[in-house]
């Protein structure tokens, strides 16, 4: 059987915005002419390198009909670019993709939703944007509404919806697409847990119906659940192509060992996912109990103090810092945010700042955690470092019994006791 | 669709004509985009659809006062208010259509960077949605004609031709400007100014005879000149100046086709640049 999708040497080159070739200064011109007076032109600095980069390089692989394939990789590995090329949103620079079947792409939940339109109207508009026929939408309308659980608000403009309702309605439309090939990007990372579960259920239903699914995610648990095959992208290149389990192992191995460890992390030179913003976050430092610099790893239950350095060029009245802890499966296990503090004194500040987050006891189970840190000014995110640091939590005798917890995500203090029940007495 | 459906994604190059097959495949979506634009245009406004006629109506009242009463500009036969309104109705459509379509891609960034469908639908949808407003203005014009005891003649049958020409001119410009707007947001600031100037170099509120005969052919290169002359003759029954109208009609067609070609050439990079 022919593959349903063939990728042949797909490459994509981007020009970095705003990079203008630097003019040669007069001094450099003179110096160069003195060194090589007769080959002045040939010695001119090459244009390439500086202003362009390859987001994808020579990606080739096949997808067979009915296969559910997960594309995994770090931020910036080129996953989204690959999906965008496949979905014809942007052209590849080189290479070719052959697609044998009707394809629908879901790169975002609720694309084209208009806040002024009602839920009912948006179902039709969004369905059409995703490539559904009007008759198709009409025939599935009741199913979509039932799945979304927003029946009562169908004739309310979606701008009055809560964010949960909005996401549910948007996913409901997408979930009822019926293409031969479905391309999905990270959309499961939205909504509450119950709804996420429902979505994963719907996704596996889709994959069991024999359709081909291409699924991009950070969430290894979802990939493990849904996919048979995995493709790992690293720095725009295809690093691994094989079974989903092997792909996840490959990814986890490549991730651990990479990234910033140690107790002082330089953030000023860490790349950001959003280009063109000033890199305000300069540095973060880790200390453990007794204000000692954190060694390579932290015992489960130990205290963690994070000092964050950033400057304000102009006076700022209101700012916040958030730090997210993601486990190896890419799931957020904990978010520390200064906005959660009820009575933090606010004052106008300018110049260099040191903002300290003190966590008396970090009770995640052993493993490696990736930290994402962001800075907000007046409740707007102004800087974000996705993969800012890694911390290793190691086993410890948290409960003081010598027993180490073997599963779950957290250890928490808890008590057990026997309540006496009348009529039954303990034998001693 | 059918089992033999095969799609090849690869770098595009050169000037490509319209992809008719794809346009047919997605035809319903164009309808949905037009419907969306119409639905949301006057949502949460007090006067609602009244805005569609208020704009040319107010302009007519002001121009009648300033140009007709104060500056002594005369029409070419019909009462000046009728004359001005018959000119302003297509002009307001044209200017709204050009500015709406020019900003349409940027206003729909999410659609451009997260989904795929023929991109031309975005500016074209913005233009088509304004036809409803034009319909309202024309209805008002008919009421005014009853009030002024001015009747239609057989030339009214030609009106669809001039509506089409207005559509082509507005779409042609809209396609070019919206594509440019993706890379250069200067367009957003230039458009209102250009449209304002356009009102004075197009015979909208004055008859064509005010322009020296030797310059008229030059003025006809502005496709809206033919649209204005045509609208007025078709609705108010004055003689059709085919020599000039023909030139404008050809220009509007050329403008539309070049708009399509330019747009299709530039659309490859929209998602990267927007």
Describe this structure in words.
- The complex is a heterodimer of chains A (428) and B (274).
- Chain A contains 8 helices and 19 strands.
- In chain A, strand 6 (181-185), helix 6 (193-208) and strand 7 (212-216) form a beta-alpha-beta unit.
- Chain A has helices at residues 26-35, 79-86, 119-129, 134-148, 163-175, 193-208, 220-226, 244-255, and strands spanning 5-15, 52-63, 68-73, 94-99, 103-106, 181-185, 212-216, 229-234, 237-243, 264-266, 283-288, 292-293, 297-299, 304-316, 319-326, 332-337, 349-359, 367-377, 380-394.
- Chain A is globular.
- In chain A, 21% of the residues lie in helices and 33% in strands.
- In chain A, the strands form 4 sheets. Chain A has a 6-stranded mixed β-sheet with strand order 5-6-7-3-8-9, sandwiched between helices.
- In chain A, helix 3 crosses helix 5 (163-175).
- Chain A starts with a strand and ends in a 34-residue tail after the last strand.
- Chain A has 2 domains: 54-255, Rossmann fold; 264-394, Coagulation Factor XIII, Chain A, domain 1, CATH 2.70.50.60.
- Mean pLDDT of chain A is 82; it is low at 18-24 and 39-49.
- With 428 residues, chain A is an alpha/beta fold.
- The longest helix of chain A is centred in the middle third of the chain and has 16 residues, at 193-208.
- With 274 residues, chain B is mainly α.
- Chain B has one domain.
- Chain B has 14 helices and 1 strand, in the order E-H-H-H-H-H-H-H-H-H-H-H-H-H-H.
- Chain A binds chain B through residues 14, 84-103, 105, 107-108, 111-112, 114, 116-117, 121, 124-125, 128-131, 133-134, 157, and chain B through 1, 5-12, 26, 28-29, 32, 36, 39-40, 43-44, 108, 110-117, 268-269, 271-272.
- Strand 4 of chain A pairs antiparallel with strand 1 of chain B.
């Amino acid at each position: 059987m022919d593959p349903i999708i063939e990728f042949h040497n797909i490459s994509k080159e981007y020009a970095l915005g705003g990079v203008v070739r630097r003019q040669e200064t007069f001094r450099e011109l003179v110096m160069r002419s003195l060194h090589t007076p007769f080959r002045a032109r040939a010695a001119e600095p090459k244009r390439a390198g500086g202003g362009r980069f390859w987001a994808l390089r020579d990606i080739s692989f096949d997808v067979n009909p009915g296969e559910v394939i997960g594309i995994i990789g770090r931020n910036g590995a080129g996953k989204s670019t690959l999906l965008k090329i496949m979905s014809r949103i942007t052209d590849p620079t080189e290479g070719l993709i052959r697609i044998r079947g009707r394809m629908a792409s879901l790169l975002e939940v609720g694309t084209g939703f208009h806040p002024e339109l009602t839920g009912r109207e948006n179902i039709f508009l969004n369905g059409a944007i995703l490539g559904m026929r009007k008759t198709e939408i009409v025939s599935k309308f009741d199913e979509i509404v039932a799945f979304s659980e927003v029946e009562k608000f169908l004739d309310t403009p979606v701008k009055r919806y809560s964010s949960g309702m909005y996401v549910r309605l948007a996913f409901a439309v997408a979930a009822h697409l019926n293409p031969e090939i479905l391309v999905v990007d990270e959309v499961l990372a939205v909504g509450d847990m119950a709804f996420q579960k429902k979505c994963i259920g719907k996704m596996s239903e889709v994959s069991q119906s024999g359709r081909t699914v291409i699924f991009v995610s950070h969430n290894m648990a979802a990939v493990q659940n849904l996919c048979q095959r995995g493709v790992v992208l690293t720095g725009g290149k295809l690093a691994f192509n094989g079974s989903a389990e092997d792909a996840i192992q490959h990814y986890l191995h490549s991730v651990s060992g990479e990234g910033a460890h140690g107790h002082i992390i330089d953030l000023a030179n860490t790349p950001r996912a959003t280009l063109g913003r000033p890199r305000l976050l300069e540095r973060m430092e880790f200390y453990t109990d007794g204000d000692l610099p954190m060694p390579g790893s932290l015992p489960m239950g130990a205290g963690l103090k994070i000092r964050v350095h950033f400057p304000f060029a102009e006076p700022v009245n209101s700012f916040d810092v958030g730090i997210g802890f993601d486990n190896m499966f890419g799931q957020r296990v904990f978010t520390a945010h200064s906005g959660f503090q009820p009575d933090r004194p606010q004052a106008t500040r300018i110049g260099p700042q040191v903002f300290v987050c003190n966590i008396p006891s970090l009770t995640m189970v052993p493993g490696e955690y990736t930290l994402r840190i962001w800075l907000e000014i007046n409740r707007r995110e102004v800087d974000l470092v996705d993969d800012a640091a890694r911390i290793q939590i190691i086993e410890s005798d948290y409960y003081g019994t010598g027993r180490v917890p073997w599963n779950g995500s957290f250890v928490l203090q808890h008590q057990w006791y026997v309540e006496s029940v009348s009529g039954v007495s303990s034998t001693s | 669709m059918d089992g033999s459906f095969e799609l090849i994604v690869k770098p595009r190059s050169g000037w490509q004509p319209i992809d008719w097959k794809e346009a047919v495949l997605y035809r319903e979506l164009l309808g949905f985009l037009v419907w969306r634009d119409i639905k949301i245009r006057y949502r949460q406004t007090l006067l609602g659809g009244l805005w569609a006629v208020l704009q040319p109506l107010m302009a007519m009242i002001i121009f009648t006062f300033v140009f007709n009463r104060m500056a002594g500009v005369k029409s070419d036969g019909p009462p000046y208010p009728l004359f001005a309104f018959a000119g302003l109705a297509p002009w307001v459509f044209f200017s709204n259509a050009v500015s709406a379509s020019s900003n349409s891609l940027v206003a729909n960034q999410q659609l451009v960077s997260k989904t795929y469908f023929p991109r031309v639908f975005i500016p074209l949808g913005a233009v088509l949605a304004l036809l409803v407003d034009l319909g309202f203005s024309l209805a008002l014009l008919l009421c005014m004609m009853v009030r002024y005891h001015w009747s239609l003649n057989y030339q009214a049958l030609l009106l669809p031709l001039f509506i089409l020409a207005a559509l082509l001119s507005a779409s042609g410009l809209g396609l070019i400007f919206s594509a440019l707007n993706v890379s250069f947001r200067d367009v957003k600031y230039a458009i209102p100014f250009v449209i304002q100037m356009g009102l004075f170099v197009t015979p909208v509120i004055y008859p064509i005879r005010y322009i020296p005969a030797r310059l008229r052919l030059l003025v006809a290169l502005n496709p809206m000149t033919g649209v204005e002359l045509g609208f007025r003759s078709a609705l108010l029954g004055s003689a059709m100046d085919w020599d000039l109208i023909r030139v404008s009609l050809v220009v509007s067609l050329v403008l539309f086709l070049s708009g399509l070609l330019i747009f299709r050439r530039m659309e490859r990079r929209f998602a990267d640049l927007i």
